[in-house]
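Message: Just now I want nothing more than another pair of eyes on a protein record. I am handing you a single protein, as its sequence and its fold in token form. As I understand it, each token names a local backbone shape. Take your time, and here it is.
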Amino acid sequence: MSERWPTEIRLSGDKRILTVAFDGGGRFELPAEYLRVSSPSAEVQGHSPAERKVLGGKRDVAILSVEPIGNYAVKLFFDDMHDTGIYGWDYLFDLGREYRNRWSTYLRELEERGLTRDRAATASAKTSHGGGSCGSGGCGCH
């Protein structure tokens, strides 16, 4: 069971910022792009740490809706049709607390792979690397 408990979960009017506050302290404004590329889903995390994906092209992603999952998490529905990540309270807290380091790492990983945050550039880079990864149906988990 989570040690963190949210006291506020609010999606901004433009659907690009999810504000999450927790009892005991911690209030975070988490960008949709950051939440999307940090999704706890198999599409992003893979089936092991070695399979974790670095997603480019998500700069303009928005969150269409936030759905409670029991009393332990939320499911985020993104406008790029991603909806398989379940964000537990502890994970959301960690994403907020570690935002600077995680975001810096993400930007460095994009650069190392020749990807960008913009959609058009990522599409051409993605086609040159082939398919078959999780999310494309190639792994058999979808």
